Amino acid sequence: MPEKITIVIVGGVAGGASAATRARRMNEAAEIILLEKDEHVSFANCGLPYYIGGEIAERQKLLVATADLLRKRFRIDVRANQEATRIDRAAKQLDVRDHLKNEDYTLAYDKLILSPGAAPLVPPIENANAPGVFTLRNLADADKIREHAVKTSARKAVVVGAGFIGLEMVEQLHRLELKIVLAELQPQVLPPLDPEMTYPLEKALRDREVQLYLGDGIAGILTDERGNASGVKLQSGEVTTGDLVILGLGVRPNSQLAQEAGLEIGATGGIAVNRFSQTADPDIYAVGDAAEYPYGPTGKQQRVPLAGPANRAGRLAGEHAASGASAEMPDVQGTAIVRVFQQAAATTGLSVKMARKLGIDAWSVTIAANHHAGYYPGAKQLVLKLVFAPETGKILGAQCVGVAGVDKRIDVIATAMQFGGTVRQLAGVDLSYAPPFGSAKDPVHMAAFSACNYLDGVDLFLDSDANLSGQQVVDVRTEKEVSAKPLAGADDAIAIPLDDLRERLGELDQDRPTVVSCGVGVRAHVAARILRQNGFADVQNLSGGALVREWAIAQRTAE
Amino acid sequence: MPEKITIVIVGGVAGGASAATRARRMNEAAEIILLEKDEHVSFANCGLPYYIGGEIAERQKLLVATADLLRKRFRIDVRANQEATRIDRAAKQLDVRDHLKNEDYTLAYDKLILSPGAAPLVPPIENANAPGVFTLRNLADADKIREHAVKTSARKAVVVGAGFIGLEMVEQLHRLELKIVLAELQPQVLPPLDPEMTYPLEKALRDREVQLYLGDGIAGILTDERGNASGVKLQSGEVTTGDLVILGLGVRPNSQLAQEAGLEIGATGGIAVNRFSQTADPDIYAVGDAAEYPYGPTGKQQRVPLAGPANRAGRLAGEHAASGASAEMPDVQGTAIVRVFQQAAATTGLSVKMARKLGIDAWSVTIAANHHAGYYPGAKQLVLKLVFAPETGKILGAQCVGVAGVDKRIDVIATAMQFGGTVRQLAGVDLSYAPPFGSAKDPVHMAAFSACNYLDGVDLFLDSDANLSGQQVVDVRTEKEVSAKPLAGADDAIAIPLDDLRERLGELDQDRPTVVSCGVGVRAHVAARILRQNGFADVQNLSGGALVREWAIAQRTAE
Ligand SMILES: Cc1cc2nc3c(=O)[nH]c(=O)nc-3n(C[C@H](O)[C@H](O)[C@H](O)COP(=O)(O)OP(=O)(O)OC[C@H]3O[C@@H](n4cnc5c(N)ncnc54)[C@H](O)[C@@H]3O)c2cc1C
Ligand SMILES: Cc1cc2nc3c(=O)[nH]c(=O)nc-3n(C[C@H](O)[C@H](O)[C@H](O)COP(=O)(O)OP(=O)(O)OC[C@H]3O[C@@H](n4cnc5c(N)ncnc54)[C@H](O)[C@@H]3O)c2cc1C
Ligand SMILES: CC(C)(COP(=O)(O)OP(=O)(O)OC[C@H]1O[C@@H](n2cnc3c(N)ncnc32)[C@H](O)[C@@H]1OP(=O)(O)O)[C@@H](O)C(=O)NCCC(=O)NCCS
Ligand SMILES: CC(C)(COP(=O)(O)OP(=O)(O)OC[C@H]1O[C@@H](n2cnc3c(N)ncnc32)[C@H](O)[C@@H]1OP(=O)(O)O)[C@@H](O)C(=O)NCCC(=O)NCCS
């Protein structure tokens, strides 16, 4: 029987509950106290939008492990409505506020695990707390929004912030037949992605008559005569009405408890920890949205407020606290996914935009391919952007958007990143293939092949939003394709169908910098190879072809 | 412009056509001759069953790249109906038989790429070539089967061999409303998998009234008075009638051309090659079903007759032949997938059965989990078996079966294997999660966690088909669950619901070897931890719980 120690855990959901159960499995003798300032422990935060929209019909489904189960099965002393208010590190004790009894008490610990999560950002604007303005973090929030959206006669909602949660809320409120306005400070939805990759999401939103205000932040909440929210004022001066306002502006880590106890806070505002999730005080661990993780693409510590890392880090911290040892918390890649109506968009690691911001040299290729064999019915096109280091070919990140197979491609790439993989190694992964499931050369391979071609100088890729003026642009699609949809932002593109190119080389100037383009980049790749081997010294392939070019130009115009 | 050399390619489909196009992209000056003994090049072999069943409605869809396109776009000299019959290595030339003109001629090469594929095995039995007996390798075969199945009044088919192609044929012939008999020499369908993992497939077959003869090989073909196939005789003496017989018995590599030229043949019967797909003669390459690959799980060369490796190796060989250099062909893991009605079954690397046969020490864990968050509607259970090395934790293989999300899990694990990954590393992969797509702790994580628990002695797993007699078996499910479905092959299991276990420890003998079990293994894991920490020295968790136990016992009985 292991040591009889007291483990106190602050926060009873993703990180905290995961720590508690693993701690119990590793140590039957320990006293394990789980403090949760709100009513519920172990609920499915990530399910809240779907409960609001009614897609998850039963509220009870959101209670993943009840307090009762945690008590009976795991002998965890679950204390809901009890808030940790102060850590006394010297005395190894915690001040706790019992919100039910309205009392304070002190709790001694041998090991303390902090998983207090994060709080939705509420901007310092007028009427930010008016009735009808909501943030979404827990079940009580969800109940309130659902009540307001379903039970009142709300007809129109303003969602502020087009990140993961904002987009999920748009989808789910649309499901409730509300008219939706979506405002976002960035000039695009889903800011973690590169702008062109978000085009299909914006299209999905516009197709459902979601009114988009991009590049426009919130300036204030409008209220009616009773003081209820009736709309928002944007920084541009634009005003839009609405019966409820959802703020989905991101989160602020709940790091104050740690900070007040003198524990180190990292550069990104989360509690600083080592690979065992130990803070500067080895008896105090921190995990989840309040903490930082080792981030794969940069090798630095940063916050990654997602459920997977919180769960895994919580589990390891629980084990370490309970037994004195555990595996190290591996790098986190920031892999995330969201569904926006039929479209899925996923990302892992760095976008090109983020890499630039960090001063990291990054190349990218964008390919479009079917999610399974094209000859098998039901194939859907997905677009995959692979970001990598020009010197080493190390994979830095990827983004994928489409209606099917998006999660699989990002998970495969995220797995390769976990091993510090390069695009060369990615080109060799041996994936499952039968017509209903994939292709003999999977989209992941196509992206990796293209990246290797880029690294080897076999084919150089040009960003899809590049300025093409002054370059010799060759569009190698068929006449029919070109006239149906001319290449965006390339008015004097020379159209030569690929299959005629060798005969018509004389029409081109081999000394001019040349950009080739086609539908999605495949034919342009063949064309680029023909040109290069025929004396054209400077040839680039427009990444993602006319398809992604259209997205990029639309997004650039939007900015 | 690169060197003007002559590259001759034997075989115009997966490996051959991939080599040809890449060769052209790397070398505009080369003469590239693609020899194909049959009518069609570049067709979708893997789509043939779905064309026969009518799921792929247009035959033309199967022609991935037409000869015309290869000629126009890639300037490839496509020579259909022309068969390479002899290699003269000293003279660097090839004898070719033109089947249309019924002529022979000689062809000089600088580089020769062999991708002649494999031939379906036809056993040396009576009437093996009777009309109505079919094998399936190319379009002509598919046309014949389709003709026979659709246009004649065929009502019943006998499929011999329950491998990937056999199972696809069963599914597709069932779609054509034929009654089906499926015979397989092995005591299970899909022999690459461990027997218990195939239970859901067998169930799917039986549910559709496919008559199964397992552990029974074919002894002869029965014919009617006109000499047409009318059924099969099995080795057991059993006789079954049928209007057509499909032989899906695996393939024999077309290595004779190479062998006759004195090139080395590997231990598994494929042409031996190095990492550049070069045979013993550096000007002759071999790829695809006729060749061997470096196989990840063993580090040895072996045949892996699948389209992905053929395509990738062909591409690299084409590049090497055309330019004198290429990346090395990476390890192949043997990743494969098949759909059998609603069920998907996938595998990568070694099964436990294969590992045993090879004398490789292998441990395994089997878990069951939802393919996405259980609280989000539509979650489907999948079962995932992870096979790994006991000393190092190196992943040796995995198998997965279920109706959704199977390909993703196997692809993630196959990717980890590509990096020589261990189950410890797998436990840390950062996968995308939102409720419609996955879980915060994905099934891949659960399997990896369990494997780590096994390695660390936190929880030891017992194979689901183990003999439990003599052991103290504790079933920790609820009374209701136990009475609804008692644990198979464990008549004197002691039922103690998990939540009562701590109070009822006195009912158990802590000195007896103890096996715990529950629904799928999760509660048993908690129970095992309680027992171990309460003085029970020898505790094992029945892998996959009552669910997989039922499968294993059913399959054991079937043998
Ligand atoms: C609506 C929504 C949707 C989401 N969707 C996804 C998704 O699809 N995929 C994904 O990966 N992530 C998603 N997330 C993020 C994910 O839920 C979080 O990353 C994860 O829950 C973080 O775990 P945590 O333990 O750090 O915080 P939480 O799970 O929030 O738990 C922290 C708990 O600590 C309590 N607490 C705070 N301070 C104290 C204190 N002083 N004393 C006692 N208790 C305290 C809080 O009340 C809270 O219940 C979503 C989040 C939300 C809100
Ligand atoms: C029905 C069916 C379904 C399949 N399904 C899948 C699947 O779902 N997933 C998967 O990964 N794999 C699948 N495969 C396997 C896959 O098709 C093969 O692994 C792949 O085609 C092998 O490529 P290859 O180039 O070696 O051979 P092939 O693609 O068969 O090409 C070889 C060609 O060479 C020609 N040839 C042979 N000898 C000569 C000669 N002397 N001269 C000239 N030409 C010659 C042959 O006629 C043949 O056309 C399937 C195969 C079949 C038959
Ligand atoms: C559910 C919760 C309380 C954790 O409880 P838990 O008992 O650790 O349950 P999990 O499902 O996470 O873990 C399953 C355990 O069974 C093991 N396991 C899984 N399948 C198994 C099988 N078939 N056989 C044996 N063991 C198995 C796992 O290894 C793990 O044990 P370990 O941690 O000791 O290795 C916590 O994750 C939680 O509160 N989640 C909801 C909140 C949340 O995550 N929100 C964000 C996402 S919506
Ligand atoms: C189709 C076939 C002829 C190969 O032709 P291919 O021109 O090499 O076509 P692929 O789709 O395989 O390759 C696409 C090329 O475009 C590149 N590419 C893909 N997407 C791209 C994009 N968006 N931008 C730029 N390049 C791209 C790839 O890198 C690859 O080029 P590379 O090999 O020079 O690196 C051959 O694979 C074949 O015959 N297949 C059918 C037979 C078969 O495989 N059967 C078994 C499975 S059913």
Please explain how this structure is put together.
Two copies of one chain form a homodimer. Chain A is built from 15 helices and 30 strands. Chain A has 559 residues and is of the alpha/beta class. Chain A has four domains: 6-117 and 252-323, FAD/NAD(P)-binding domain, CATH 3.50.50.60; 133-249, FAD/NAD(P)-binding domain; 342-458, FAD/NAD(P)-binding domain, CATH 3.50.50; 462-558, 3-Layer(aba) Sandwich (Oxidized Rhodanese, domain 1). In chain A, the strands form eight sheets. A five-stranded parallel β-sheet of chain A has the order 3-2-1-7-18, with helices on one face. Chains A and B meet through helix 1, helix 3, helix 8, strand 21 and strand 22 of A and helix 1, helix 3, helix 8, strand 21 and strand 22 of B. One flavin-adenine dinucleotide (FAD) binds next to helix 1, strand 2, helix 2, strand 4 and helix 8 of chain A.
End-to-end Cα distance of chain A: 63 Å
Strand content of chain A: 25-35%
Percent range for helical residues of chain A?
25-40%
What is the fold-level CATH name, i.e. the topology of the largest domain in chain A?
FAD/NAD(P)-binding domain
Strand tally of chain A, please? Answer: 30
Bound molecules: flavin-adenine dinucleotide, coenzyme A
Radius of gyration of chain A: 26 Å
Global outline of chain A: globular
Largest β sheet strand count, sense and barrel closure of chain A:
5 strands, parallel
